[in-house]
Task: inverse folding
């Protein structure tokens, strides 16, 4: 079985698409008046109105940001578009969480839609002369401005490329698909190595500085990433698996309060972090 076929069985591509009503509108007339009043150039700026109280949309925006953050943390990069690699090992955890996030997003959007007519009336007063009724979607259409979806597609498989281009050209395209896929997977694994390196490096810097105050999340982030790496280790890289296990055992399992109380414990933890970083550097250079 070729490498590309193995990868298509180990992973897939996922896209998260989230749409929200921005509740902002460029006001050309107000922009013109400001520019004329100040004698400024015509391209000096733009006046954008907040059509409703920004706080009303905050719950929707918050869950959208959480979903995007989760999506990026739980997947690996793929090419230049919005697709990300989702290893099969992480499929159940990922889809379960995204379903919950999507349901929360939909509920927040429905809650906003329920307030929408009242928010328009408040805006009529708050905006006063800047209020324009035609800036607002109809109440019956506002919910359509919000959407949350996750799509899954297979990784490109050179063996499935069957377009009739002639034997030589077909072989060339298949070879290019294999090269592109292998390059993308190599980049994805490099990203995973860099994630681990960066979170340990940050911990090492904070732990070495005796005057630095650090939050519990300094070590919690290491523990969470080390728990995730086995599900994202697309190529089964044994060195990455070993270093993640070592970081979880020596840093992720530490009690932050113990490190805050004991200079010796903090110093030893910093040395552990530096030792792991040295090992990582050797592997990454290789």
Result:
């Amino acid at each position: 079985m070729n490498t590309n076929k193995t990868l298509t069985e180990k992973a897939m591509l996922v896209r998260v698409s989230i749409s929200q009503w921005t509740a902002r509108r460029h006001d050309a007339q107000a922009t013109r008046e400001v520019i004329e009043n100040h004698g400024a150039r015509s391209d000096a700026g733009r006046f954008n109105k907040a059509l409703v109280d920004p706080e009303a949309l905050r719950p929707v925006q918050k869950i959208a940001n959480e979903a995007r953050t989760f999506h990026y943390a739980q997947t690996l990069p793929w090419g230049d578009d919005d697709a990300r690699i989702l290893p099969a090992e992480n499929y159940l955890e990922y889809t379960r969480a995204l379903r919950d996030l999507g349901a929360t997003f939909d509920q927040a959007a429905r809650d906003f839609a329920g307030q929408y007519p009242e928010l328009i009336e408040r805006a009529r007063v708050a905006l006063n002369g800047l209020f324009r009724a035609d800036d607002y979607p109809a109440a019956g259409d506002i919910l359509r401005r919000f959407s949350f979806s996750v799509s899954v597609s297979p990784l490109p498989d050179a063996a499935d490329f069957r377009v009739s281009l002639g034997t030589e050209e077909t072989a060339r395209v298949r070879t290019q698909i294999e090269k592109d896929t292998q390059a993308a997977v190599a980049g994805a694994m490099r990203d995973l190595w860099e994630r681990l390196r960066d979170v340990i490096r940050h911990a090492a810097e904070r732990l070495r500085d005796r005057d630095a105050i650090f939050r519990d999340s300094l070590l919690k982030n290491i523990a969470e990433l080390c728990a995730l790496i086995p599900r994202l280790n697309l190529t089964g890289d044994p060195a990455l698996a070993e270093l993640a296990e070592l970081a979880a055992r020596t840093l992720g399992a530490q009690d932050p309060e113990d490190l805050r109380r004991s200079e010796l414990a903090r110093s030893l933890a910093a040395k552990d972090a530096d030792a792991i970083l040295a090992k990582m550097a050797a592997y990454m250079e290789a």
Notes: Strands lie at 11-19, 24-26, 48-50, 76-77, 84-87, 147-154.
